Task: inverse folding
């Protein structure tokens, strides 16, 4: 057994998603190598070397990897991939973009968003928006897997001193080019890692009204999420969407405000520890999964919450 | 430019499926079926490219048993020019689907493939990336913007941190996200016209592709049920319970 974890990073810092992926890898077996593919990414490599349980960090540091485009990184991972029994990445947009391409290059299946490891070849993954959990077994020589990070605790990010080795494989390609990106900046905790999340839906009526949610979030140190309807209506940006096809969250406390509770929304938050629903419609399906429901007008409740918390 | 769009027949997005008692899968008996919503967005984008004069032909393909003719006809009614049905058992795995699409891309000399980013039944999110790999093509996944520019394709992608813009050479594969467009409804005259559009039938053997499954489903279980909790009467009660009972704030 030999496992490769692809690090999630922005060339500066190692993302917590990698820590959960390492935990999933260690549940499969050892040794666990981490690949850091980027440009001027030495700080990421050092951070990866400190993660508990990591045996070795491979660093493919090259300008061609700056934007981590799937075409070149997949070719790189596929080239070294045959030395491994398992290749894992977090089920983030980066991991989901990359690993199916790696799997196809290796002519093996890819197993998406596992939530449990049963054995070295058997894994559990949600299907049908989380309305069913499939246990799947793979006979492929290399198992290529994305990991739902909320299902695995983060490995300790300090205390280890794994070897860091340069990897001089560059598969530069001219198929795609990075043009630019628009990243949302926020002082708030990252949505998928926050211990409290408060989300607004269509009931918020406008983007301006999200100020009411922000005031409560400030009091709770919460991240802010949204339903698809709120994103589609342009109230908030796409990276705030929680759900089957958005982000998966599982905080200690999830507060759904003006959200009806469609299957696709529940798929993204129903593993939260405690769920609170605030909705003026007592029949809204969100109440069927809420631990605490408050049937009232959100425009009355939110200011009161912000004041009393 | 010649565009290939792949559509999958899936259970309607509003149906809450139940796991079968013998844990072999989910029960779809009499369930309402539809085009996977993301595939519908892909069809719409292809038709818009054609309407803008940037595409000459839109071919729609579906892989599965005979029933998926219904979804091909729907795509034809929306404006696709002709259909291909690859007759196979339902539920082929993504690698097999990507190999079949790859064979069609070669056969038809396709310039752009548009597919949904994931299907709402198997939730894999793999086919676009796999097809791109097999064809040595670039990929623009989770697209919320697609534009042809000087023989290249500019794709805006929804990513975890916001949005990313990339430029792809053609041929390329794009997978659609929810906000790429809002699909139109088919008009009655177009539904009638679609009945006359041709649908070719092929088998995996015709395309020289082995569709053998790589993964075995051992069992399918229902997820742990969450039961409804209590209704609180006021903001004060909510705060008190969150503090003293749930202890989460
Ligand atoms: C392929 C596909 C993928 C999807 N993916 C996702 C996804 O990832 N995430 C997601 O969220 N959805 C997703 N959806 C959409 C989903 O089906 C629902 O349409 C969406 O979640 C509804 O959002 P909502 O609850 O905000 O809006 P609505 O369903 O319109 O609910 C609004 C709620 O606000 C309440 N309300 C209104 N005014 C007030 C007030 N003043 N005070 C209190 N309550 C009020 C109403 O009672 C209502 O319950 C997807 C759908 C499809 C087809």
Result:
């Amino acid at each position: 057994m030999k496992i490769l974890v692809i690090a999630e990073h922005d060339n500066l810092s190692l993302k917590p998603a990698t820590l959960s992926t390492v935990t999933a890898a260690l549940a499969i077996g050892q040794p666990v190598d981490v690949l850091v593919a980027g440009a001027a990414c030495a700080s990421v490599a050092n951070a990866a070397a400190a993660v508990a349980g990591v045996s070795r960090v491979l660093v493919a540091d090259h300008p061609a990897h700056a934007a981590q485009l799937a075409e070149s990184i997949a070719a790189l991972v596929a080239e070294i991939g045959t030395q491994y029994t398992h290749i894992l990445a977090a089920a983030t947009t980066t991991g989901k973009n990359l690993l199916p391409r790696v799997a196809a290059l290796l002519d093996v299946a890819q197993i998406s968003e596992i939530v449990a490891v049963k054995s070295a070849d058997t894994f559990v993954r949600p299907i049908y928006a989380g309305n069913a959990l499939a246990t799947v077994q793979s006979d492929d020589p290399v198992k290529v897997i994305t990991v739902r990070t909320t299902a695995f605790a983060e490995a300790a990010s300090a205390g280890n001193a794994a070897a860091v080795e340069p990897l001089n494989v560059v598969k530069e390609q001219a198929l795609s080019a990075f043009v630019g990106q628009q990243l949302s900046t926020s002082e708030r905790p990252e949505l998928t890692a926050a211990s409290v999340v408060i989300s607004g839906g269509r009931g918020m009526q406008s983007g301006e009204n999200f100020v009411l949610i922000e005031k409560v979030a400030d009091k709770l140190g919460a991240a802010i999420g949204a339903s698809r309807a709120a994103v589609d209506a342009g109230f908030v940006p796409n990276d705030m969407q929680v759900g089957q096809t958005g982000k998966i969250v599982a905080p200690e406390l999830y507060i759904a405000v003006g959200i009806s509770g469609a299957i696709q929304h529940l798929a993204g938050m129903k593993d939260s520890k405690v769920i609170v629903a605030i909705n003026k419609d007592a029949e809204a399906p969100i109440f069927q999964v809420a631990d605490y429901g408050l049937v009232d007008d959100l425009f009355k409740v939110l200011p009161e919450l912000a004041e009393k918390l | 430019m010649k565009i290939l769009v792949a559509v999958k027949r899936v259970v309607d997005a509003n149906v809450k499926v139940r796991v079968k008692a013998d844990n072999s899968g989910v029960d779809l008996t009499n369930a309402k079926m539809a085009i996977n919503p993301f595939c519908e967005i892909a069809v719409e984008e292809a038709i818009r490219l054609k309407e803008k004069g940037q595409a000459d032909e839109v071919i729609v393909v579906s892989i599965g048993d005979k029933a998926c003719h219904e979804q091909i006809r729907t795509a034809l009614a929306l404006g696709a020019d002709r259909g291909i049905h690859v007759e196979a058992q339902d539920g082929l795995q993504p690698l097999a689907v990507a190999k079949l699409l790859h064979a069609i891309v070669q056969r038809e000399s396709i310039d752009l493939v548009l597919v949904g980013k994931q299907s709402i039944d198997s939730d894999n999110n793999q086919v676009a990336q796999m097809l791109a790999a097999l064809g040595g093509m670039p990929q623009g996944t989770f697209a919320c913007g697609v534009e042809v520019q000087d023989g290249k394709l500019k794709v805006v992608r929804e990513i975890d941190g916001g949005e990313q813009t990339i430029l792809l050479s053609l041929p390329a594969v794009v997978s659609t996200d929810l906000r790429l467009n809002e699909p139109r409804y088919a008009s009655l005259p177009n539904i009638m016209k679609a009945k006359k559009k041709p649908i070719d039938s092929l088998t995996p053997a015709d395309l020289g592709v082995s569709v053998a499954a790589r993964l075995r489903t051992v069992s399918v279980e229902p997820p742990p049920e969450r039961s409804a909790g209590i209704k609180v009467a006021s903001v004060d009660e909510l705060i008190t319970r969150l503090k003293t009972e749930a202890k989460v704030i």
About this structure: The CA atoms of residues 64 and 90 of chain B lie 5 Å apart.
